[in-house]
Amino acid sequence: MIYEFQGYKPVVHESSFVHPLAAVTGNVIIGKNCYIGPGAAIRGDWGQIILEDGVNVQENCTVHMFPGKSITLKASAHVGHGAIIHGANLGKNCLIGMNSVIMDDAEIGDESIIGAMAFVKAETKIPPRSLVVGNPAQVVKKVTDDMIEWKTRGTQLYQQLPKDCHESLKEVKPLREVPEHMKLQDGVYDTLREYFLRRQESHNKKE
User: Fold this and answer.
1) pLDDT value at position 124?
2) Alpha-carbon distance 111 to 129, whole Å?
3) What does the pLDDT read at residue 184?
4) Burial of 132: CB neighbours in 10 Å, binned 0-12, 13-18, 19+
5) 77: burial class by Cβ within 10 Å (0-12, 13-18, 19+)?
6) pLDDT, block means (10 residues), the chain with 207 residues
7) Which distant-in-sequence residues (6+ apart) come within 8 Å of 41 by Cβ?
8) What angle do helix axes 145-168 and 192-206 make, rounded to 10 degrees?
């Protein structure tokens, strides 16, 4: 659902995917290979919102701001389910955890990870590569190379998802019975805990 507002029409690169149940309004610019999930609301009615290449804004997220403000979600920023970005700028390859809230004029540094349900107060400046948790949110340690590798792989799945949606997503009537021999999807990505366990197992085998 793409809406013009006061003469501003959203700009969406053809390689990106905006779900029909999302709402993108006004002065919004969406770059390449971005994914906007169902229930997401990106409201550029009072200012400009830029999503650089490879950004994902997942289900039921809100991106908005106070009048006269403009914000940027930089390349490969990853906004988890239910998060709210209100007038904040997100750095490159950062991760915003599920149901977290990032308030006005906050700056999230490149490759930082904001934990689920964190509350980042207005005007907070989060340095690059910070791991942030809590309400109010606090930096608890630096993000490691392993954590960034895990995060980047997850974001790459979302950067592939627009192409997959363009090719295969379609509205259908539901089946009434489970098909015989229906296969489950392959596991292609570990939770962070599983990722570290696999790394440790691989390290132990080498020793």
Assistant:
1) 98
2) 5
3) 86
4) buried
5) buried
6) 97 98 98 98 98 98 96 98 98 98 98 98 98 97 95 96 96 94 82 75 69
7) 22, 23, 25, 61, 62, 63, 64
8) 120
- The half-sphere exposure of 14 on its side-chain side, counting CA atoms within 13 A, is 0
Contacts of 194 (CB under 8 A, 6+ apart): none
Residue 65 burial (CB < 10 Å; 0-12/13-18/19+)?
Answer: buried
Separation of alpha carbons 34 and 190, rounded Å:
22
Half-sphere exposure of 184 (CA within 13 A, CB side): 3
Contact indicator for 54, 35 with CB cutoff of 8 Å: no
| Complete DSSP assignment for 119-151 | EE-TT-EEPTTEEEETTTTEEEEEPPHHHHHHH
Q: What is the pTM of this model?
A: 0.91
Alpha carbons 192 and 84: distance in angstroms, whole number: 23
Is 43 within 8 Å of 63 (Cβ atoms)? yes
